[in-house]
Automatic annotation (TrEMBL):
Domain of life from the UniProt record: Bacteria
Entry's Gene Ontology BP terms: NAD+ biosynthetic process
InterPro entries: FAD/NAD-bd_sf (IPR036188), NadB (IPR005288)
GO molecular function, one term: L-aspartate oxidase activity
Entry protein name: FAD dependent oxidoreductase
Length: 540
């Protein structure tokens, strides 16, 4: 075997939220880490994919790790120190800079990039963490049931670098290391026979994968900022999915995810609302009545007059969900073509809004909508990366099923408790329309735990899942895929790798041996990881 270019203790492939959390946790315990990222920005769904954090209602008090809380407070600190906030905004302990209804912390993605870079900076200065930028994994070597090395290729110049590590964390957005390392995995819907889930189909549907989306940000100012007519506009302008009941995808109308009834949303740019009155709590209000406010990431009225010419509105709505085809286990050219088509869908939605969308005053079109490429860090104004809701998922030691978390199944018993819990999370089982033609599944879950067994492949001994590739099903991925859970998963994986290096134990023995598990969990708790929910939390 050719000698690797780099040798390290822990290789973390993918610098999304899970990957960064894994790198920080491993480095804090003294491990040497190589961290890699394909896109210009680190941070994954929070930054390069431009999705504000989807969180549970208790996030300001409990239910996330200490490191994740530090990220959130770091973002707020930037706004307080560097932005001309109004006195009312600056004094707000739970500052929501965008005053979006989807999250208690809507913000510009670049701010999060800076905070994440700052969190990594001390370790990069000492060489404890080495960040390989603009690379993606292309191959791997194995030695029996161990991953020996991973080769990464520059997406800019095409050069390869091979990294050998004692432990590898797959923190990619789609579980890219699983096929490369021969690690067993599943895609799409499992069958009811396999999982026992009431919402699963009779037969497995491996090609039935949740929609991906390419997000973008707009402002609304004077002038005509209409973009060139997108190449695929004629197709997308008339496309009417079955789940839309004959309505066109490019419209203000879409199914209510919870009831499936078609509902018409409103769209009023810069409505002059009171941003300090926004109560972003999905358990009380889905918040998508006025799409401008739903994922707003900058509220101009929280800042000095004239600082922002307009609010900044993030478009991540049903109308840009791309479900004509998935990008898992398809040839590279097919993957690129489908993501390019998703980008055409997003541009078509913008063009429709600028030229044809009904306005509240009875007119049509909002030519004042303008893309903000500078906010997205991209040339075309779209997010740098597609937002992938669903990944390849490991065949895990423990697989979390609908029967473990669904309120309809569990009721007041609460979610399954795990002796090997490494964290907690909470979100509704939220599945978007999928490539098999299915509509939304959006039903209550119960506050749940993250079992260590869900991070461990059944066979591969030194590969750990660190993102949406953990042992969930197509259904439970819908509540385990959000920002704080991804961070917690990555943090637990990075900490476990360093723990095993320090103790000579193996991940599987830590999970299966009570004494070893207790030692590892005690270390997690000491770093601010919550293993169980307090009493009194409720489903929504």
């Amino acid at each position: 075997m050719t000698s690797p270019d780099l040798q390290t203790d822990v290789l973390v492939v993918g610098a999304g939220l899970g990957g960064i959390a894994a790198a920080l946790a491993a480095a804090d315990r003294g491990a040497r880490v190589v961290l890699t990222e394909e896109h210009p920005w680190i941070g994954g769904q929070l930054t390069s994919q431009a999705v504000p954090p989807d969180e549970h209602p208790w996030v300001e008090r409990f239910g996330v790790t200490a490191r994740y809380r530090a990220l959130r407070e770091g973002i707020r600190d930037v706004y307080r120190r560097r932005y001309p906030l109004t006195d009312g905004a600056r004094d707000r302990a739970e500052l929501n800079p965008g005053a979006g209804w989807v999250s208690k912390l809507c913000h510009e993605p670049r701010v999060a990039v800076g905070v994440l870079e700052e969190m990594l900076a001390p370790y990069r200065s000492t060489g404890r963490i080495r960040l390989l930028e603009r690379v993606r994994p292309v191959s791997a070597t194995t030695d029996g049931d161990r991953v020996a090395s991973v080769t990464l290729r520059s997406v800019v110049g095409g050069e390869d670098v091979t990294v050998a590590a004692a432990y590898t964390v797959d923190a990619t957005e789609t579980g890219e290391l699983l096929p490369l390392t021969g690690t067993e995995y599943v895609t799409g819907f499992e069958s009811r026979h396999e999982t026992g889930e009431p919402s699963a189909p009779d037969e497995a549907q491996p090609d039935n994968v949740q929609a991906l989306s390419v997000c973008f940000v707009v402002e609304h100012t004077d002038g005509d900022h209409t973009i060139d007519r997108p190449e695929r506009y004629d197709f997308w302008r008339t496309y009417a999915p079955a789940a839309w009941g004959g309505e066109q995808l490019l419209s203000w109308t879409a199914p209510n995810p919870r009831t499936l009834a078609l509902e018409k949303r409103s769209f009023t740019p810069n409505p002059g609302d009171d941003p300090l009155a926004v109560d972003a709590d999905q358990s009380k209000n889905a918040g998508d009545g006025n799409l401008w406010l739903f994922r707003r990431i900058a509220a101009r009225d929280l800042h000095a007059p004239g600082f922002y010419a307009s609010d900044l509105c993030l478009v991540n709505w049903p109308s840009i969900d791309y479900f004509l085809g998935h990008v898992l286990d398809v040839p590279r050219d097919v993957e690129e073509a489908r993501i390019a088509d998703a980008r055409q869908l997003s541009l078509s939605m913008l063009y429709w809004m600028q030229t044809e969308a009904p306005r509240p005053d009875g007119g049509t079109g909002f030519p004042g909508l303008r893309l903000r490429p500078d906010v997205m860090g991209s040339a075309d104004g779209l997010a740098q990366a597609a937002y992938h809701r669903e990944s390849r998922r490991i065949r895990a030691v423990t697989t979390v099923t609908e029967n473990d978390v669904s309120y309809a199944v569990r009721g007041d018993r609460g979610a399954t408790r795990y002796a090997d819990s490494v964290g907690v999370g909470m979100y509704r089982i939220d599945l978007h329309p999928s490539t098999g033609g299915d509509t939304y599944i959006d039903v209550p879950s119960t506050p749940f735990e993250i079992p260590l067994g869900a991070l461990l492949p059944r066979r591969t001994t030194n590969l750990l899942a660190g993102n949406k590739n953990i042992g969930t099903t197509h259904i439970t991925n819908g509540c385990y895929r959000l920002h704080p859970v991804e961070w917690n998963v990555g943090e637990a994986a990075g900490h476990l790798a360093a723990h095993c290096l320090a103790t000579g134990r193996t991940p599987h023995s830590v999970q299966s041996e009570p004494d070893q598990l207790a030692d590892y969990q005690a270390e997690l708790v000491a770093t601010g990881v919550e293993l169980h929910w307090p009493d009194g939390v409720y489903p929504y």
